[in-house]
C-alpha cells in the first residue's frame, strides 16, 4: 500500500487565507487611521465630523454583521474556497470605491459593502485551513493566518503616514485584486466535498444554532470568550487620546496606539498558537491569556505614566494580552461539524466585533458625569464585566485540540 502523502503546512490554502486576511485587516483598520482627514477633506468639522464618523463606522459594522451570517451560510452550502475569493473581491472593490467618495452618503454605502466583504474572509479561511491540515498541524496553520493577517494593521499605519487618504484606499483595493490575479489554485477541503456528496445533510442552517440547547450553548460560549478583545481594541485603544488626557498626558495619537497594540497582538498570537501546540490544549491557553488580560487592563487603568512612550508600552501589553484571537477563532471552527463549521467560524468573530456596540454604549453611559464621571472608572466597570463573561463562558467548554473534525451535526 502506498503511504499517504504528507500535507505541507504552507500549502495554498494557508497562503491565500493569510494574504487575504492581511488585506482584510489593512482595510478594517485603515478607516480608523483616515477617518478624520478624509471627513475633513469632504467638508466636515467639529461635532458633525465626529457624528458622521460614528455613523460610517456603524454602517461598516452593520455590513459585517450581515456578512457574517451570509458568508457563513454560503461557506457551508457552496464551499469555503468560493467564499474566500468572493469576499476578497467584494472588499477590494469596495476599497477602491471608497477612494472615490464625495459625500457621507456614498462613503456610507461603500463602508457597508466593505463591511459585508470583510466579514467573510477570516471565517472561510480558518475553516478551510482547519479542514485541510491534520490535527497536529492545524493550530500552526491558523496561527500563520492570524499573524500574517494582523500585520496588515501595521501596513495601514505606515501607508497612512505617507499617502493621501484616497490613495490609501486604492492601495488596499489593489492589494486584494492583485491577490486574486495571482490565481493561486486552492482546492476545496476534502471534508466539505465528502459532506457535499451526502444529499440528506442540512448545510449552513443558521437558525439551527438556536433551536437546540447544546448547539446554542456551544455557539454562545464561542462568542462570549471574545468579549475582552473588543473591549480592549474598541474602547481602550480607540480612545487612547482620551485615556491619555485622563492620565495627564498630551499628544497621544490613535494611530500610534493602534500600532503598539497590534504589534503586541501579533506577538501574542504567535505565543498563544505555539503554547497551544505545546500544551496540546486550546482552553488552557485561553485561561492563561485571560488572566494576562486582567493584569494588562488593571495596569493600563491604574498605573501612572511619565511619558507617552510608557503609555504606548501599556497599549503594547494590552495587545499582547488579547493575542488569543487565533485561538478564539480556531475554537469556533473546531466546536461544530462540517455542515455548520463555516457558519459558526464566520459569524462568531463578526458577532464578537458587533458586541462593540453595546460595550461602547455602556462605556459612554457610565462615563457621564451623572454616573461614574470619567473614562477610567467607566472602563474599569465595563472591562470587569467583559472579562467575567469570558471566564464564565470558558467553564465547561469542550476541549477541541484533539478533535476529529470530519463529522456533521445532526439537525
Quick overview:
The chain is mainly α and about 400 residues long.
User: Could you describe the largest sheet, including whether it forms a barrel?
Assistant: none
Query: Which CATH architecture of the largest domain?
Result: Up-down Bundle
N-to-C series of helices and strands: HHHHHHHHHHHHHHHHH
CATH superfamily of the largest domain: MFS general substrate transporter like domains
CATH-derived topology of the largest domain: Growth Hormone, Chain: A
Low-confidence stretches: none
What's the assembly state of these chains?
Answer: single chain
Count of separate structural domains: 2
Tell me roughly what share of residues is in helical segments: over 70%
The N- and C-terminal alpha carbons lie at a distance of 38 Å
Form type: globular
Q: Measured on Cα atoms, how large is the radius of gyration?
A: 21 Å
Residue-averaged pLDDT: 87
Please identify the structural class as seen in this structure: mainly alpha
Q: How are the SSEs placed, and which strands pair?
A:
Elements: H1 12-41, H2 46-77, H3 80-98, H4 104-132, H5 135-162, H6 165-181, H7 190-196, H8 213-224, H9 227-237, H10 240-246, H11 254-279, H12 283-302, H13 308-321, H14 325-334, H15 341-354, H16 356-366, H17 375-394
Describe this structure in words.
- With 411 residues, the protein is mainly alpha-helical.
- The protein folds into 2 domains: 8-185, Up-down Bundle (Growth Hormone, Chain: A), CATH 1.20.1250; 208-411, Up-down Bundle (Growth Hormone, Chain: A).
- The protein has 17 helices and no strands.
- Helix 12 runs antiparallel to helix 13.
- The longest helix has 32 residues, at 46-77.
- The model has no long low-confidence stretch (mean pLDDT 87).
Amino acid at each position: 500500500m502506498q503511504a499517504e502523502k504528507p500535507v505541507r503546512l504552507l500549502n495554498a490554502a494557508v497562503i491565500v487565507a493569510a494574504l487575504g486576511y492581511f488585506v482584510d485587516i489593512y482595510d478594517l483598520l485603515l478607516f480608523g487611521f483616515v477617518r478624520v482627514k478624509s471627513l475633513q477633506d469632504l467638508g466636515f468639522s467639529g461635532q458633525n465630523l465626529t457624528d458622521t464618523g460614528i455613523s460610517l463606522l456603524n454602517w461598516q459594522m452593520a455590513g459585517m454583521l450581515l456578512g457574517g451570517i451570509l458568508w457563513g451560510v454560503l461557506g457551508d452550502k457552496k464551499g469555503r474556497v468560493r467564499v474566500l475569493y468572493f469576499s476578497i473581491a467584494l472588499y477590494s472593490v469596495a476599497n477602491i470605491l471608497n477612494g472615490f467618495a464625495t459625500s457621507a452618503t456614498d462613503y456610507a454605502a461603500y463602508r457597508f459593502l466593505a463591511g459585508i466583504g470583510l466579514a467573510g474572509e477570516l471565517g472561510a479561511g480558518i475553516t478551510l485551513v482547519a479542514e485541510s491540515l491534520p490535527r497536529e498541524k492545524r493550530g500552526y496553520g491558523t496561527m500563520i493566518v492570524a499573524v500574517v493577517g494582523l500585520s496588515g494593521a501595521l501596513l495601514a499605519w505606515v501607508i497612512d503616514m505617507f499617502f493621501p487618504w484616497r490613495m490609501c484606499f486604492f492601495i488596499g483595493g489593489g492589494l486584494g485584486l492583485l491577490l486574486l490575479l495571482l490565481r493561486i489554485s486552492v482546492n476545496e477541503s476534502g471534508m466539505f466535498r465528502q459532506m457535499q456528496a451526502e444529499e440528506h445533510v442540512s448545510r449552513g442552517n443558521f437558525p439551527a444554532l438556536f433551536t437546540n440547547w447544546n448547539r446554542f450553548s456551544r455557539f454562545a460560549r464561542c462568542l462570549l470568550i471574545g468579549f475582552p478583545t473588543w473591549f480592549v481594541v474598541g474602547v481602550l485603544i480607540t480612545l487612547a487620546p482620551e485615556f491619555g488626557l485622563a492620565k495627564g498626558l498630551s499628544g497621544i495619537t490613535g494611530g500610534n496606539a493602534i500600532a503598539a497594540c497590534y504589534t503586541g497582538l501579533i506577538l501574542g498570537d504567535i505565543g498563544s498558537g505555539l503554547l497551544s501546540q505545546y500544551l496540546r490544549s486550546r482552553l488552557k491557553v485561553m485561561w492563561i491569556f485571560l488572566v494576562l488580560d486582567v493584569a494588562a487592563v488593571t495596569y493600563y487603568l491604574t498605573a501612572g505614566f511619565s511619558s507617552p512612550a510608557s503609555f504606548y508600552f501599556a497599549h503594547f501589553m494590552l495587545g499582547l494580552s488579547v493575542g488569543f484571537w487565533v485561538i478564539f477563532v480556531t475554537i469556533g471552527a473546531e466546536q461544530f461539524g462540517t455542515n455548520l463549521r463555516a457558519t459558526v467560524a464566520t459569524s462568531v468573530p463578526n458577532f464578537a466585533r458587533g458586541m462593540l456596540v453595546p460595550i461602547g454604549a455602556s462605556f459612554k453611559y457610565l462615563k457621564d458625569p451623572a454616573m461614574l464621571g470619567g473614562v477610567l472608572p467607566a472602563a474599569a466597570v465595563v472591562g470587569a464585566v467583559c472579562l467575567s463573561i469570558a471566564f464564565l463562558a470558558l467553564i465547561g467548554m469542550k476541549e477541541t485540540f484533539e478533535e476529529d473534525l470530519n463529522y456533521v451535526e445532526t439537525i
